[in-house]
Amino acid sequence: MSKSRKTKTRRDSDSVDINPKRMKSEDEDNSEKKENSIVTSDTSLENISEQLLSMEHNLAAELRKITFRLPVEYVYSPLEYAFNIHTMYVQKYCNTVKKILFLGMNPGPWGMSQTGVPFGEISMVRDWLKICGHVGKPAKEQPNRKVTGFQCTRSEISGKRLWGLFQELCKSPEKFFEHAYIHNYCPIALMNKKGCNITPAEIKGPEIQILHSACDKALADAIKILKVEIIIGIGGYAEKRAQLVVQSSKLPVKVLCLPHPSPRAVNNKNWSEKATQKLSEFGLLECFTA
């Protein structure tokens, strides 16, 4: 029966290895982990970006092992085929501790799936964050959701709204990243045969437990690496996962929520004004405007 057919994540055919240290054999990786934990109690500012990238590289490898059942037909892992661009984002903007972590759910088809940057709408990444470069291809590509990187002509509205809000409030990226960072809970995009997005919230069966276990651990590590004090979930799913991670790991972190900027969300007109009002209610607006 067709329902028994499975789709497995695979190593992407055109990933970019810009740091050979992170591309060691599994034996070397396992040996090194025992001697050198990713998260240390005394995180130095000089290696925050490298710790985060190492954690994300390991997470991508763990998620690659998951076998997803139908209706999942395609799995895009931009942390592999767009790792060079993602590395630019992390190294440029995440080399200090962050008070506030904005947490998204997973990559969108015209955002992070194209650029490797969370909510990474093309023009915002290229023109405001000043990041651009070659992007590879996923191992198995959906014909209507092709990855063309910075040649992509589609705009992801969610990313345009989110980064556009902080462009308006902060004026410069440096002002935003002084206190905050944007990160995705799950770094893979899932689609059915027709290319329709399947969110992690829609996944059933044992694979979601494996995904949650890997992503929960990675989020807890990210919180410790960045010494996060406040997580703002972008939408209800991200808020819920953050709450569970904070509670289970007993982390002294406050979890808040902003409405998701997707145009498909209910009552989502004037998103920018609503999000600004929320930041004001949280007492955080001055972090981006002062």
TrEMBL record:
The keyword Nucleus is assigned to this record: yes
Positions of the UniProt region annotated as Disordered: 1-41
Sequence similarity: Belongs to the uracil-DNA glycosylase (UDG) superfamily. SMUG1 family.
GO MF annotation list: DNA binding; oxidized pyrimidine nucleobase lesion DNA N-glycosylase activity; single-strand selective uracil DNA N-glycosylase activity
Keywords assigned by UniProt, alphabetized: DNA damage, DNA repair, DNA-binding, Hydrolase, Nucleus
Localisation per UniProt entry: Nucleus
Xref: InterPro entries: SMUG1 (IPR039134), Uracil-DNA_glycosylase-like (IPR005122), Uracil-DNA_glycosylase-like_sf (IPR036895)
UniProt cross-references to Pfam families, sorted A to Z: UDG
Official protein name in the record: Single-strand selective monofunctional uracil DNA glycosylase
Residue spans of biased composition, Basic and acidic residues class: 10-36
Example GO biological process: base-excision repair
Residue span, Uracil-DNA glycosylase-like domain: 92-274
GO cellular component, one term: nucleus
